[in-house]
Prior knowledge:
The protein has 843 residues and is an alpha/beta fold. The chain is built from 32 helices and nine strands. The longest helix is centred in the C-terminal third of the chain and has 37 residues, at 634-670. The N and C termini lie close together (8 Å). The relative contact order is 0.07.
Amino acid sequence: MLSVAPEALAEREPIAADLVTVAVPARDEASSIGACLESILDQDWPALQVIVVDGASRDRTAEIVRAYARRDRRVELLHNPAGTIPVSLNIAQRAARGRWFVRVDAHSSVPAGYIRGLLHHLQTEEWGGVGGRKDGVGITAAGRAIAAALASPFGVGNSRYHHGRRATTVDHVPFGAYPTALIAEMGGWDERLLANEDFEFDYRLRRSGRRLLFDPALTIAWHCRQSIAAQFHQSRRYGRGKADVARLHPASLQPRHLAAPALIASWVAALLLAAIWPALALIPFAAYAIALAGASLAVGRTLDWPARVRLPLVFAAMHLGWGIGFWEGLIQARTRKSPSSLARPPSPLVGEGRGGGLLRAAVGGVVWQALSFFAGKALVLVSTVILARLLAPTDFGVVAIALVFITYADVVTDLGVAQALVFLPPDRRRNDAALVVCLAVSGAFVAVAMLVAPLAASFFGHPEVTGMFRVLSLSLLLRATGQVPDALLRKGLRFRPRTIAELSRALLQGGVSIALALLAFGPWAIIDGYLVGCAVWSALLWKAVGYRPGRSVWHLRGAGLRPLLAFGLPAAGTALLLCLVFNIDYLIVGRLLGAQALAYYALGFRIPELVIISVFNVVSVVAFPLFSQVRQDTTRLLRGYLFGLRVQAIYGVAAGVGLAMAAPMIVHVLFGPRWGPAIVPLEALALYAAFRSLGLGPHEAFRGIGRPDLLVKVSLLRLAVVAPALLIGAKFGIDGVSWAQAAAALPLAVVMQVIASKVLRIPFGAILSSLTPALAVGIGVAAAMAPVRFVLVGAEPERLLLAIVAGVAGGAVALAAIDRGFVREITKLVQPQAGVPLAVGAE
């Protein structure tokens, strides 16, 4: 443990005249304010200004403070009618006369050398803020259990200020100490926040380039809540506050902040699934119960029995309170004015301050895109499972047929101008031109679709598809209306509103489809739900952007249409070719093998699409604007490309191999025995997704450096390889088509990386080195899951759960053996660097 050595303090004695302002926000703290003030006034640093800001207390808090002020001139009492902590802190800051500003909460006390220790670090001018370890003090049995839970990683994650044992840089310090001038420079605490105002302040501080130091030798005795109900309400309030901060600063979210909300989301999804498969729905509840029991046994060993028996309830209250509060905060944002609408103007992403930069912007984008992905795809998976049990395979097949041509048209309805908006400098008239192009082209496609619907239906031999095709074509116009606001949000790396739009679309599309399926609408249930989802998606995107078309929106002369089309047309051509390549299997299966075969094939493709390919799409949405911003910086472009390739390949291969090994169990457990013909396609297409992950990166990189024309050539090559392979495979049914996809994906991935090596000037050996860990992880997953699939006998839900656990363990062991630095590099993306050596007291 690092601490402040007394001899070091003697060598660097602080200036005695340095006045320190201690701010104590207090509201209804009559029972603890006296002990708090005694601990502050007993400090061995006498030059103090102690400001207690009373937040409209209803007890004797103000009266007690006045008594202290009469006895000691260092104590001052100020009043805050608003009653909120950030307002109290700002009042104290404006009244501060000290060079240093230290916050101490009214229900805590500090040791005699606390302020001297803080200043020992602050006076080095290395740190923007300093804080110590917050040790919970429990009086009741529940209070002691709460204090123990707060000091455990299972209770609070990697919040080092609760349980850290060594000095390090952190993302947040409790009751921090800062230079008073720096607080004024940062604008003080955000008074719109009812909770988490300290974390939000520290985040802005770090964004400005300053660092925060946590020193566990500086302990704070903090009186935690003394009942389980009170702890639940506090955690719920903190969760709501974290949602507010997340809307203001998406990149501030850490994995520990999302753990409890993810737990709640998994339980809700399980409850929705319970009506279909109760055994599978028990998995998230059982997993949490096992983790809860293990953590309670480990943490409770030092507690007395009354506290020990309450510990599981305390953990549950903390997690449920935080998770529920977080979702409440997000939902309430849609019914009241969001703090994000009042947020400070965003800083530039490139070259921002000393601590800004694209990396944090990328992490923030990925966080919101990942939230959109996991929650959205969970909704899609749940709705697919339910619809698969409500509708016949043929119903799925005819809808898939109708969607084939619509999918092709959808990728070119904007002629690529939306992608051009992301790449080109911002311009209002250019936005107008892009909107007109989207509406005009999509309207033309709708008209054509109405006319050619009978021809499309006859191509597949299903005349009943004609009406569905015409109705589905309306989705082209609906989606076109949202292309421009979506592009503007991507350009600004504003992924939170995109996440809200995507989740809303998935929720309403699934809900409407299920409701209509229960009303016996048949395949029309899926179509109507799809249209509702598209309309909601577009409306929410428009609500999130400030751009509105002007009166001269239809006047394209001088609107910058030429550069839009110069970039957009090749991009649209590439997207069409890629769509043809990645969906030509649907054309071939639907045309040659029929609607029912297409249903089985589509279901087999749906799982790897949700689990693997959609993850790549999440990264792609963030990667394109990032590559476009660093295209002139060769070093950053190379590092970003190799790191992204390594991460995506490890995930893609591990998930693909795992899905292939678990395919029979997945199909039987989730969809039922009648979907058995989808097992072999799932096996092959999961490996196809794994092989495809090895060729990722060039698409976003080529577009990001302004060379979408390269993708046209690559797409033509891919089409020339894939189409013949699938036609040959179709002679062997959907199994043959699936394995043909997998067989073509591997050599194409190699070709893509060879081209990327030459164009981006990245050594091919470096690319191979980035892919090596993924191959090792794939072998580890397969070896671990093989006994479960081929040897173990038992109920399939239990075997599926065991196979997942074995696969994760096997992949983790393989990754640790071949690439130990991977986890460390990922960790650096989501938390500040740890273990920074200190000027004094280092061991």
